[in-house]
Amino acid sequence: MSNYTIISPVTEQPIQDIHLADIDETDVAILKAQHAFESWKKVTPGDRAKLLRTFAAIVESHNEELAQLEVLNSGHTIGNARWEAGNVRDLLNYYSAAPERLFGRQIPVPNGIDITFKEPLGVVGIIVPWNFPMPIAAWGFAPALAAGNTVVLKPAEYTPLTAIRLAELALEAGIPEGVFTVIPGKGSVVGDRFVTNPLVRKIVFTGSTGVGKQIMRGAAENVKRVTLELGGKSANIIFDDADIEKAAAGAPGGVFDNAGQDCCARSRILVQASVYDSFMEKFEVAVKKFVVDDPSKESSEMGPLISKLQFDRVTDFVPAGSPIAFQGSKPTGPGYWFAPTVLTPKDSSDRAYREEIFGPVVSVLRFTDEADAIRLANESEYGLSGSIWSRDIGRAVRVSRGVEAGNLSVNSNSSVRYWTPFGGYKQSGLGRELGPDALDAFTETKNVFFDTQN
Ligand code: NAD
Fold first, then answer.
1. Which of 144, 302, 357, 416 could lock 292 by a disulfide, CB 3.0 to 4.6 Å apart?
2. Alpha carbon distances (Å) from 454 to 112, 136, 291, 419, 450
3. The model's pTM
4. Centroid of chain to Cα 219
5. Ligand 1 probe mutation, 233, 263, 380, most atoms within 8 A of CB
6. How far apart are CA 215 and CA 447, in angstroms?
């Protein structure tokens, strides 16, 4: 039996002790989820849809409570945390439409009729990181439940509180016991057991690329399905014909939101040489205005890093003598605060430019032309997200097609919309979440042929 003491990233004081499940407790929960699956898959589509809508309504009526819990546990700004709880509601509403629309196909064949069915997989294991505890959990559990699977979910050790509360709200909504179970625990114990227990038929993992590779290797043993959402080092590409004012004003939010602990953070800014000085001047003003403050204040735009460990990791990327162009502000006193930091390395070999930092640190480089911008953007093992700023439609299309990344935005830094697919190229992941096709990742296609000649 072990416990984990959650520490506030704002005050560095203990918040709550959480029991961490061991392997036996994990197996018991998985077995319960397997039993629950037998009846959950038979709930009629209309009833399953209604239960998900009720769950959404209950999440909505607890929006403020969930948001405050995230501010407390994770140090997210209150504005972000309200959006995150709202995102859970939106996902449940969006996928509540799915059970009644989970169509198979009728395919013309000789001598009979051929029909396909979309059938649930069984128990789905969801492993969540600490950076967006609510949305990332719901990106997995909302479509998984809608498709008729049951879910066991492991939150990150640092940030289990909102997931635990969401599981209670699911029960309140009438979702039967065992259909959605949250199991706080260590990655190496509970997470690993999801991978090795054969009753878990699929793993949805969001986290670091290293652990993702380990999970993929482990899943091979049982040919277990996996969806992986991993790291990123996304480029924000600013061309000379862009609205430089707007690009510069948006750039801090594009990388420093959630203190840079965002897999889509635009942590490499590539600026066309001819507008570099003009961009940097405006960017400096925007960075200095970025409000880093107590996340419970409505005006706060950035809170602290999640932990002392993360603070040390980020600090390690900015040793003495780093090419710091300018920095934003940070509060004094307790808390894992790191000031927004802008680096101007001499070239793309710089470690802070190449590696995912997962903190409020961005590197800026110049490029010469379109080809050079695409070359630099693609010079990364990752390919998750990115932005292209240009008023030239042809160029925006060409560069969007040229950049190897799963989620790009033109003249915007927003990556996530629950209506559209989300996922990575290269080592940023495997598979897609969100959008109309997410159900495919939580179903098997069964093909049945009916012979009409006999
Ligand atoms: P992490 O990989 O250390 O942990 C993620 C989750 O995996 C946690 O719940 C952890 O307990 C669990 N875990 C750890 N070891 C495990 C193991 N051996 N078996 C099974 N589960 C295990 O990552 P993190 O530090 O929590 O999150 C930061 C990383 O996540 C960053 O690299 C970031 O880019 C990535 N991330 C990616 C996305 C995305 O959508 N692509 C979203 C958020 C975070």
1. 302
2. 10, 51, 74, 45, 10
3. 0.97
4. 21
5. 263
6. 29
Q: Is 353:382 a contact under the CB 8 Å cutoff?
A: no
Sign of CA dihedral 392, 398, 403, 408: positive
Q: What is the pLDDT of residues 278-312, one digit of tens each?
A: 999 999 999 999 999 999 999 999 999 999 999 99
Domains of the chain: 2-230+428-451 (3.40.605.10), 235-416 (3.40.309.10)
User: Tokens 């945390």 belong to which residue?
Assistant: 81
The residue written with tokens 């690329």 in the block is 209
pLDDT of 188 reads: 98
Residue 145 tokens read as: 């439940």
Residue 343: helix, strand or coil by DSSP? strand
Rounded distance between C-alpha atoms, residue 401 and residue 383, angstroms? 13
Q: Which atom of ligand 1 is nearest to the CA of 155?
A: 9
- Point out the ligand 1 atom lying closest to the alpha carbon of residue 186: 11
Q: From residue 359, how far is each of 100, 277, 324, 414 by CA, in Å?
A: 42, 25, 15, 18
CA distances, 329 to each of 190, 255, 307, 401 (Å): 39, 15, 19, 37
Residue 52's CB is within 10 A of a number of other CB atoms, namely: 25
Active site residues: 229, 263
* Of the candidates 288, 289, 295, 291, the residue with the CA atom closest to the CA atom of residue 335: 295
State the pLDDT at residue 1.
Answer: 65
Residue of 421, 381, 422 lying closest to 404 (CA atoms): 381
Is the sign of the CA dihedral 430, 75, 417, 126 positive or negative? Answer: positive
| Sequence-ordered list of residues with C-beta below 8 angstroms from that of 52, at least 6 positions apart, any chain | 92, 93, 95, 96, 99, 142, 145, 146
Coil, strand, or helix at residue 443? Answer: strand
- Residue 235's region, left for phi above 0, alpha for psi from -120 to 50, else beta, is beta
**What whole-number distance in Å separates Cα of residue 437 and Cα of residue 435?**
6
Parts of the chain with a pLDDT under 70: 1
H or E stretch covering 153: strand 150-154
DSSP 21: P
Nearest Cα neighbor of 385 from 205, 198, 257, 213 is 257
